[in-house]
Task: structure prediction
Amino acid sequence: MEWVRAWRPAVPGIAEVFHAHFVEHAYPLHTHDTWTLLVVDDGVIRYDLERAHHGTTAADVTLLPPHVPHDGRSATGAGFRKRVLYLDGGVLPDRLVGAAADLPNLRDPVLRRRIDQLHRALGERGSGFEAESRLALICDRLTQRLRRTSPATVPARPAPIAARLRDLLDAGDRPGPTLREAADILQAHPVHLVRSFTAAYGIAPHAYLIGRRVDAARRLLLDGHSGAQAAVAAGFYDQAHLTRMFRRYLGTTPGRYAAAA
Result:
């Protein structure tokens, strides 16, 4: 049976805690504006990150960097159980993004044990100080591990037009511009915009935008907003549209997601 549980802890640096068991659900290509720190408790996950194929098991710690497209599915067809911490972008330095994209899986028993301890603290009332302390140790160890593998070369910057389009899609305005409106604002042909964005970020702009809206909706739901309120605030056409996209991206409905918090 598939299930999810998510909540926003009162711990600085942690945007969301997400526990799930999936059998048939497969994540489409998407991005987050957070670091994704993932451990598998059962099964094997296969995923693509920045056009490279990866797999992760219970022996690994997986760290996916912000803004890098990835997907995910069961590698065996038997499903998987996972625990995820979505960490605010500032908890790890930006210079480590390239290293995490190149080597997202870490075989580190000490780090794995510390993450287990942090999840345990996050599930206990009155353990906020302990959780903050354990998060600090985890981030320090991640920094030390990734610093050893940081690429010597600086990653190429995306084309200016692609970066400008992403800034436009990330703006707080809801529901946001249409492709034609974005093309008018940026003074570029719509096809050029789509091709430039996809080449720069490895994901089509419409898929990027839906993923960001789903992230916005899940945070609103965890803050106590209704599905209808979350749909409007996150930029979806209506609650039914949110439900379709939510199920596609998270394998559950907004109502079940909020109820399981």
Observations:
- The longest strand covers residues 14-22.
- The CA atoms of residues 34 and 177 lie 24 Å apart.
- The chain has two domains: 3-149, 160-259.
